[in-house]
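Good morning,

Both structures are done.
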Amino acid sequence: MIPRLGKKYDLEIETIAKPKEEYMTDEYFELDLPVAPAVMVGDEIVVEGADVSEKLLEKVICRHLDQPESKS
């Protein structure tokens, strides 16, 4: 879903994957990043610790790009 939306809205997608233990370190918490799994658009945390619906993610992407929400 995310790669498809990245192509649709011409967004750069960055995926960060680490072993679960690395997300539980003091160093990770000092970065002030969301709890994994998480999805961020720009500096906005869309969801953390859960899955995200495509509709919600697309809505946030459109808001971030100052575009009207897609009807498709």
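Second structure follows.
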Amino acid sequence: MPKYYKVYDTKETLYVTVDDGGAVILKDQAGRKVFLSKYQAKLMKFGVENLLKSLFKDSDSKDVHVEELAEPPKVEK
């Protein structure tokens, strides 16, 4: 069963769907989508945690929230 998440701060919202096979779909408020295979998502996680960590140390990311959703989000264009 896929899992749905809403990742947001005061300026932007991103919807994340993780399917049973580990693939990830990212969708922004404008309806643009990015599809990542399980392997691509794993590389992305590694890259963000290890290579880009310094970019987010002193940023305004303290107000970012992650919320699990019970059903797929309704994104309007």
